[in-house]
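Quick illustration, no need to memorize.
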Amino acid sequence: MQKKTFRPKDFMMNYALYLIMLLIVIIIACISPKFISLRVIRDILTQSSTKMLVALGCMFIIVSGSADLSGGRVVGLAAVVSGSLAQQAAYANKFWPNMGELPVIVPILASVLVGLLVGACNGYAVAKLKVPAFLATLGMQMIAYGVNCLYFNKAPNNSQPLGGYKESFGNLGTGSLAGIPILVMIALALCAVVWIIQTRTCLGREIFAVGGNPNAARVSGINVFKILMITYMIAGALYGFAGCLEAARTGSATSSYGLSYELDAIASCIVGGCSASGGIGSVPGVIAGVLIFNVINYGLTFIGLSSYWQFVVKGLIIIIAVAIDVRKYAAKN
């Protein structure tokens, strides 16, 4: 067996982004040593949890060789729908005045169903109508936002921020068990489920096959239409559940929730090793990508740097990540 030789160029290509991230963290920690603390780590993990679910859904889409720009607006729609169903009966500004308190499972299921519906529409447009994924999901992004605004503006709410949630609903986002946030535990559990689907099921292998070469997958007997439909619906369900948890975490919801979440999710996936060409991606990589971006966002805010710099840094990271991905793909071929 031939022993692999260490090549600095390959090492830098594979780990350049992680080294840059490590350098940024070291600089932030030097400026403000309090950044390295359990409280900060807990805050970062909590803030990362909902975005983790959005990124996992986005990963399915990217691995299948497609794209999805509707994720953020689906998060916002699901947050408003779930929030409107999770209010206390005695709340003064109740969205549905004549409706009593509902079990916490109702807003959860409603948010997931909203995501499934949007995902099914995306999948049908892309797989059946052959609309380019970029344009189909861009259109669905606008539709989801429009529906959200119409729903949110319904009397008697009239676009007032939602609040007054039941304690059981709020605990999903702010509660903890043995000192570990429930939100983090939910995110980790779903990461494990997605990892099992991706690596231990026929569905996971077929998604990789479709993303790697859809024509070859079709010839081998894989129903590409079915796989794309399932992929978009899984992603939509994850977006919807993320919206529900975001409403629970913040204790409120408005139609502006989820803005640009899809861009952060795509960036996290690419940084985490998902190939823009499809067929490549992993759950651990996506977890790393999400944490990297949230550490940067939190860290720059922690040291008092203008939030505008976050856009500059994230933009540079995305460009570098895609450039590295393209070079890897070219070298592979």
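The CA atoms of residues 191 and 283 lie 7 Å apart.
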